[in-house]
Every structure is written in structure tokens, then in C-alpha cells.
Amino acid sequence: MLVLVAGSTRTARIEGISAAGAAPSLLAHTPGADLEIVTYGKVVWGSVVPVSPSGCPTPAVVTRAARELQGCQVVAVDAGMAGPTAAPTLELARQPGRDVREVRAVPEAEAIFETARSFGESLPDRRVWIGETTPGGTTTALGVLSALGERAAVSSSMADNPLALKERVVEEGLAASDLGPGGAAGDPVAALEAVGDPVLAVVAGLLAGARTTGTPVTLAGGTQLAAAAALARHAGVEGSVSLATTVFVDEDPSASIRELAADLDLSLTVTDPEFDRAGDPALSAYPDGEAKEGVGMGGMLARVDDSGLSMAALRKQVSAVTDRLETDRE
Amino acid sequence: MLVLVAGSTRTARIEGISAAGAAPSLLAHTPGADLEIVTYGKVVWGSVVPVSPSGCPTPAVVTRAARELQGCQVVAVDAGMAGPTAAPTLELARQPGRDVREVRAVPEAEAIFETARSFGESLPDRRVWIGETTPGGTTTALGVLSALGERAAVSSSMADNPLALKERVVEEGLAASDLGPGGAAGDPVAALEAVGDPVLAVVAGLLAGARTTGTPVTLAGGTQLAAAAALARHAGVEGSVSLATTVFVDEDPSASIRELAADLDLSLTVTDPEFDRAGDPALSAYPDGEAKEGVGMGGMLARVDDSGLSMAALRKQVSAVTDRLETDRE
To answer: Cβ of A164: how many Cβ atoms within 10 Å?
Structure first.
């Protein structure tokens, strides 16, 4: 079962911070459209397929392609989505996160975390994958890692990670909450309230709940999922947790994903879909450093790989999904 | 893809009208628990597995068992649910239906029908099954059939169908809306407003939309699904529509399902899971006339049958699902 947590943070509206949409005005629609692509293989209520400003398609097409190849139940969670979706969702947070530079970015962090933990405890006990779609989410991840005193490493959906901007925003966010780096160590709710987003609260809660009942969890993503794992570790969650990400995150020096995984005792899987061999111009943006990860992509690639299917088959299916989306758009 | 439409009508609160719950106070929880059983194989936020007053388990266990045997994507639709659910849902109606004896049972019928039609048009074009879970829904089905001037036949989740009570309630409902039998012929929205429920509005809209774009539809259920088909026919929907139901509905003389299907030009499939051969006391209530159908059961049985799996395998899986639910309860 893949639990896809979709939400938003007003932090994404800061100019230059997110590429999860062709234009800033479309960012609010990206999580909803991502869920529609994974659920239906098409965009339903939005008319726009999420692409980066340069046209790189959303990782949702990769997750959809993986589902079409081998089937995978998806449970979509609304963790404060700012736009509509035709995908069925379970609402675990009502409001988008605020700009982290406000005093409290997620005032309801504790309630969201506890609701998600309770739901995580009741998940069936077969393996659960958890992914996310959150424009602006790498900045809140950086914020949470900083507040907890963990390695302040973070990836980006852009080829050129606007790291200095993210660091400045996080610094302002921590200052607005009277916190310094490490000031919320051992207090994940405080970190979430100050500089997090509702998606991180939900993912951390789900992970904590699922581990309580022994459900094996693979976090399917990059630094945002690692930040959620950090929150869970600071909430006292022990034992085995897996992180499955893409080679694009692994090759991003600003992500330091291997070091993050080691710090947090996460067993790391890195999968390379070899998109440079796809011959599909849309996919060549990935090896150039765009998009990189999201919507459960890293976990779904690992799952395809584990099942013995080839990455060539996956690439072919990704192209088929992309072609169908293009046709729908025309 | 199985679209499961869950909702409620206050008509279910009329004493003696529904058996979709062990006690009247639990009826509001039945649709949510049904969706949880189909989605997760267990009851999550409700603590109670829906059973009839005599202990017959909900048809949701049959649909779940069929999914476990052969996989089937489920899209759950909230069509005015009165209770909570941990299953992800797409909300197409906000309010439970009112008691049909009020002037207007579904004041927003037109908007609900049109929203569902629009969603139905955008469904992927592979085969779609549509099922429902609606305590009290056979009474609203009788109401709609009467208002349209169609055969006033209807089944029940009870072994003894309280037909006289249902007829009296419908008569009062039509009178309250200044309608006689057949008074809403050709005007499905008027029938829904007067004596329908939001689930019927959604199912009829989905069917109309899906047929517009050529998506093959199988209505998975009994007289409630037939009533939705009648609404769609009166909305001008032509062409092929399938109805897949259980032998328990077929053997119910008050349902007249063959005649209804013929009237409405529905190609009928009847499947017998041979629960009398199950050796499972919980299932023996079905051949005795309880539950009969619901939560997509008839369609899922037909799908299992089509795939070449045996009904013995299905029965074994149903018992396994039931056992797991029992264990969770203890």
C-alpha cells in the first residue's frame, strides 16, 4: 500500500523557492493533479499536468507507470491541500501550512501528528510505502532538520537549488519562533509548529503509528521524507525504517542523502531508472537535475526493481503515461 | 475500477425500515465501516463491523474478499455520509438525504446529479463497476421508481421485506411533494428531489456521464442500482448498461429484478456464490434471505466468475476476511 500525503505550505509562494508547477499560480494545483494522475492516469478537475517551468513532467507519471506495471493500492491523504482534486482522499489536516516566517507555521501540529499516528497504528500490517507531494516542501524540510539540530541538508526540484534563499527563509522562520538551530531537539511538535508543514506532521505521525504496531515502512522519497523520519526519531520512534529514493537525489550534493540516512539510522535504497537512456526528451530533464523525486517515485522504482521488472519496461510505461497525458491536454 | 457510492437518507431512521446495522443507532456508521472493510480489510475508525440484527455480516466482506482474490481499484464516493470513515473518499454530495416524507428529500439533487455526471465523463474508459452502501436505500429506490412510473418493485436487506411500510412511506413522500405515481416521468431530478437520496443522484449522474464518453458500466447491485438506471434512462441515457446482482436478489419475488432489468433495457447477470455450501454459519443467513446484496457484491461476484476463479475459492476468502474482522473485534 502506498500512502500518498498531499498538502501545501504558503512558504511555496516565496518567489524562487519551488519548481513544482509551471508558474507560481499553478503551485496550488500540483498536489491535486498529482493525485489524479496516480489514481486515474489523467488529470481530471485540473486542466494542467504539473510540469516544472522548463517542462519536466511531475514524478507522478513515474508512480502511475509503476502502478500500471505491477499494481499497488494507493491511499491518498489530504494534509492541507490548497487546491481541489478528483482523487479520493482521507483528510488528516484541514489547512495549508503557513509561511514558515510567521510565528507559527503549523498551529495544529500536535493534533495533526496525533491523528496521523492513530491512523498509522490502524494500518494493515503488510508493508506500507509513504510518499508526498508538497510544493515548497524542501524548505520546510530544511526548517525542521535545522530546528531538530539534524544535518541541514536538502534537495530541490530545480537543477539549481536555491539553497541560500531556503537557508535565509528558514533562519527567519526560526527567529520568528524564538528558536535557534537545534532549539527543538527532542520536541518534534515544536519543530513542526515553528517551521514545518502539515505534510511533514502527517508523515511523521503515520510513521510513528505504523512502527508502534510493527508495520514495515518504506519512506518513498528524498530529503522531505528524511525530515519526517527525523521528526519520528525525535518523537522516540526506534527500530528499522527504510528510505527509498532516486539516483537523482543521491547525486545531488546539497541533499547529502547518504549522510542523512546514516544519521537517522535509515536503511537507504537508491534506484536509477536510467532516464538518460529513455530517448524521451521529457525524461532527459531528470538526469539534468530537475524534479529528482516526489509522489513516491523513489519507492515505486525500488518496488519495480525488487519485482524483477526491468527499468527499460518502466521507462516504456512512463513514456506511455506521458503520451496519454499529452493527448488529454490537446 | 469499482466506484463505491456511500451515503445516507434519514428515511433509514423510520422504525423497521432497514437492517443495515445491528441497531438503529449504528446505521449511520454502516457506510463508513463498509468502505473501511473494502479498503483496508478491517474496521478502522468505527469499532463495529456492520451486521444485521441477526448477525449476518455486511456484503462488504464479499467485495473485500473478491478484491483480495483478484485485485480491483476502488474509488469511494461520499454521497452524503452521516458518519466518519478512514477510507479515502471523493465528496460528491455534502448532506445526508432527508426523510422522503418531507417536501424535498434531496434539495440539491440537480447539482449533485450534474457534478456526478461531469465526474463520470472524466472517468478512464475501461470498464467501471458502480456499487452503493446506503441504509434505507431500498425505500428511496421504491420512491424513485414510483415517481418515474416504473415498476414499483424493491428488495430488502431483511428476510421479511417490510414492503407495506415502505409503500406507505413512499406514498406519504409522494403526497408531500404533490406527486402521484409516474408524476415525475421524464424528470429524474424531480423524482430525486421528492423521494430520492443523494446516492441515487450520484449513481445516476455517474452512469449518465460515463455513457456519454462510452465507458462501459456495470451496475453492481440490485433494486437500488436499477432505480439509478431508471433515473438515467429518464434523463435520456441510451445504449448498453449492465446490471450484475446476486442470486439472493433474483430469488426475492418483491425485487422483480428480471422484470425491472427488462423494463429498463439492462443486460442482467445473476451470480450465485452458493453460500449454502460454505459451512460458515455467518454466511448461511444469505440463503435465508438476509443482506442479499450491497457494496458492489453482485458485480464483484460476476467479476470473480468471469475471471475463471471458483465460487469455492471466493467462499474461502470470504470466511478468511470474516475471521480477521472477528479477531479485530475481540
So the answer is: 8
pLDDT digits (tens, 9 = 90+) for A8-60: 999 999 998 887 777 777 888 999 999 999 999 999 987 678 887 778 889 99
- A241 near A40, Cβ under 8 Å? no
Please give, rounded to a whole number of angstroms, the shortest distance from the CA of B210 to a CA of chain A.
Answer: 14
Helix count and strand count (H, E) for chain B: 12, 7
- For residue A86, the distance in angstroms to the closest alpha carbon of chain B comes to 6
Complex-level ipTM: 0.93
B291: Cα separation from own chain's centroid: 11
Sheet containing A74-79: order of strands: A90-93, A74-79, A2-7, A128-133, A217-220, A241-246, A266-271
For residue A67, the chain B residue with the least C-alpha distance is B73
DSSP-based three-state secondary structure for A68: helix
Encoded amino acid at A295, one letter: V
Q: Do A44 and B90 touch (CB under 8 A)?
A: no
Residue position matching grid coordinates 547518504: A258
The answer on pLDDT for B327 being more than 50 is: yes
- Selected for mutation to probe chain A from B69, B73, B118 (highest A CB count within 10 Å) is B73
DSSP letter assigned to residue A259: H
Q: Which of B149, B136, B159, B137 is nearest to B186 (CA)?
A: B149
Alpha helices, DSSP H only, in A56-215? Answer: 60-70, 109-121, 137-148, 163-176, 188-195, 198-212
CB atoms within 10 A of CB B127: 14
- Encoded amino acid at A29, one letter: H
Whole-prediction pTM: 0.95
Distance from CA of B55 to the nearest CA of A (A): 24
Q: Which residues, 6+ apart, have CB-to-CB distance to A279 below 8 Å?
A: none
pLDDT in tens, A266-297: 999 999 999 998 788 878 889 888 889 999 99
pLDDT at A330: 47
Q: Which residue of A has its CA nearest to B121?
A: A44
Q: How far is A185 from B211, CA to CA, in rounded Å?
A: 57
List of chain A residues whose C-beta atoms are within 8 Å of the C-beta of residue B89: 88-90
Handedness of CA A252, A255, A259, A260 (dihedral sign): negative
Q: Find chain A residues with C-beta within 8 A of B328's C-beta.
A: none
Q: Name the percent of chain B in helix, strand, coil, to the closest 5.
A: 45, 15, 40
In whole angstroms, give the CA distance from residue B299 to residue B209: 20
Report the pLDDT value the prediction gives residue B55, as an integer from 0 to 100.
Answer: 80
3-state secondary structure B281-308: CCHHHCCCCCCCCCCCHHHHHHHHHHCC
Which cell is B187 given?
Answer: 424528470
CA distance B37 to B272: 22
Alpha carbon separation from B45 to A73, A75, A208, B34 (Å, rounded): 20, 15, 18, 11
Q: Give the pairing of strands A266-271 and A128-133.
A: unpaired
Strand partners, A241: A266
CB atoms < 10 A from the CB of B327, how many?
9
Mean per-residue pLDDT over chain B, rounded: 94
Please calculate the CA angle B214-B109-B120 and round it to the nearest 5 degrees: 20
**What pLDDT does B330 receive?**
47
Q: Which residues pair with A78 in a beta bridge?
A: A6, A91
